[in-house]
Write a structure and sequence with these properties.
Layout: E1 5-17, E2 20-27, E3 41-46, E4 50-55, E5 65-70, H1 78-85, E6 91-95, E7 110-115, H2 123-132, E8 136-142, H3 151-158, E9 163-169, H4 170-173, H5 179-185, E10 191-196, H6 198-208, E11 216-220, E12 233-237, E13 243-246, H7 252-258, E14 276-281, E15 284-285, H8 293-298, E16 301-303, E17 308-309, E18 313-316
Parallel strand pairs: 7-8, 7-10, 8-9, 10-11, 12-18
Antiparallel strand pairs: 1-2, 1-6, 2-5, 3-4, 3-6, 12-13, 14-16, 14-18, 15-17
Helix pairs in contact: 5-6
Length: 318
């Protein structure tokens, strides 16, 4: 077992909204787990070599960990397994929490814009800011009322001083949120957090671009670009010289795993950074959301879960 893996016990499964279940974990013996910072996530290891990242949405200071999972029948299987086969009392393996979406607790004002299951990582952020007496506002979009998860927590939060919660229900209001207007109305020094569908994130980032990247923070659940699975090129392993063909329909990560190459991976969509691999030569076709523009231009690293090759061969630092 890897050193960063720990075993947890599934203590509770709860229906939070139509198609959305929450899962609460304790230590393997039912004891407490370490408290985590708002914005943190864990990687959950499931049968069939599935490993998926999930935001922790438990209250700040809690000694149990909670995730919320929306069922996706068109997805890659993790949500279906959790909804259909997970049982209270089961033991599962998770990675230790990490945080790529940290909260700036010193911000004078914080604006949250979320859609659907994108509410989950910001719930503990809002609760943390409330405990600190910091002002914030949430605009959350759902298709209909039956899809609104954590309604009780939102109602309690919205009643606090300096806290505003507005839920936009698509079929009731008949129009989407005016994202540009919401961003424009925020104070100039506000910090903006956005999570949800890619279209929502792209629009908020575009509206917030004049404020600078330090003031707009995004958490994606899916890459903005489709994975590179066109194939038709080779990868070479620098460690032993092996040359492997990448056929159409397969990713580099698929091929590496097929040939028994040990490599870390998690989201399989280029958003978590787990499968970053050095590139010795060749031209990557970057499709991830993790690397910076400068890192992509340098061409000496790539995310093998989703990126491909623009050259006939890539030599990987593996």
């Amino acid at each position: 077992m890897s050193a960063d893996l720990l075993t947890v016990r599934l203590r509770q499964i709860r229906l939070e909204a139509e198609g959305i279940l929450s899962f609460e974990f304790t230590g393997a013996d039912g004891g407490p787990l370490p408290a985590v910072q708002a914005g943190a996530h864990i990687d959950l290891h499931l049968p069939g070599r599935m490993r998926r990242s999930y935001s922790l949405c438990n209250r700040p200071g809690s000694t149990s960990w909670q995730i919320a999972v929306q069922r996706d029948d068109a997805g890659r299987g993790a949500s279906r397994w959790l909804h259909d086969q997970a049982r209270v009392g089961q033991h599962l393996q998770v990675t230790s929490p990490s945080n790529d979406f940290p909260l700036d607790e010193e911000a004078a004002f914080t604006l949250f814009i979320t859609g659907g299951i994108g509410l989950t990582p910001v719930l503990p952020m809002m609760e943390r800011l409330t405990s600190l007496g910091r002002p914030w506002r949430l605009h959350h979009a759902v298709r209909n009322r039956s899809r609104l998860a954590f309604g009780e927590r939102l109602a309690a939060l919205g009643g606090g001083a300096g806290a505003e919660v507005e839920v936009h229900v698509g079929h009731e209001q008949g129009a989407r949120m005016d994202l540009a207007a919401l961003v424009s109305a925020a104070p100039a020094d506000a910090h903006i957090y956005v999570c949800g569908p890619n279209g929502l994130i792209d629009a908020v980032q575009a509206a917030a671009a004049p404020r600078g990247p330090a003031h707009c923070h995004a958490e994606r659940f899916a890459a903005a670009q489709a994975a590179a699975v066109e194939g038709g090129y080779q990868i070479q392993l620098a460690s032993d010289g092996r040359v492997l063909e990448v056929p159409p329909g397969r990713s580099i990560l698929d091929v590496l795993l097929d040939h028994g190459v040990e490599i870390a991976y998690s989201c399989m969509q280029g958003i978590c950074g787990s499968c970053r691999v050095g590139v010795k030569s060749g031209l990557p076709d970057h499709r991830d959301e993790w690397l910076s523009d400068d890192e992509r231009a340098a061409g000496d690293a790539m995310m093998v879960c989703c990126s491909g090759s623009r050259s006939s061969r890539l030599v990987l630092d593996l």
